[in-house]
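Q: How would the structure tokens look for this protein?
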Amino acid sequence: MRALLDGGVPLVAVSFDDSDAEPRADAAKAAGVDVAELRVDRYGRTDTAHVLAQVDAFKALPVLATLRSTREGGAWKGTESERLELFRALAPQVAAVDIELSSGEILSDVIEAAHRHDTVAIVSYHNFELTPGTEELRAVVDDAKSAGADVVKVSTMVRSDEDVRRLASLLLRAGADGTRLIVIAMGESGAVSRVFFPALGSKITYSFFGASSAPGQLDFPETFGLLRKFYPAFDRRKSAEG
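A: Here is the predicted structure in token form.
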């Protein structure tokens, strides 16, 4: 996963719940999905055996395990201690985990578990109301890096072109100091970010099969087609894989 993140080519992640895992995993691999984000917080069951069986179904792809808290738009219904134990069980089995910066009670333990198994720790920040000012955004990135993030994910709701430009400038600053960032502008005005922020260094763009999981997402066929059109390196990599 680290090699893919540093390969200079955008990665496309698609989110999955725990329905029909094996056929959906086969379809994702055949379609050219780069990363399978398993949204464990949306699973019908979250016992360890069931969750690890889902991971095994997607073993042909790098797996990103996300257990999103309700504070940041997720559906996790258990306790923080239960979430931590599940992260610990997942860490040696997946390529990456996503933990919110706001998860202060378990944040350091999740990152430590990931690093113990050379698993990528994505530390994320979501704001479904607005895009904060430049200084606040920079503080989020700096705090996530200080916590031990391998990749910092910033996803905010945009209301104007100025909001989009503010997020773009965050990427440009990160490019100057080598910070790995995933930046997403949510909402109708931010749909452009799904394709063009990777040109500024955003490591992963998120897409979907069937139903969108976030405002402004483009479906996988559209995302895939636009990336092949605008990024020659992406097209060359996909042609080589095919």
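Residues 88 and 113 are 6 Å apart (CA to CA).

The chain has ten helices and eight strands.

Upvote if useful.
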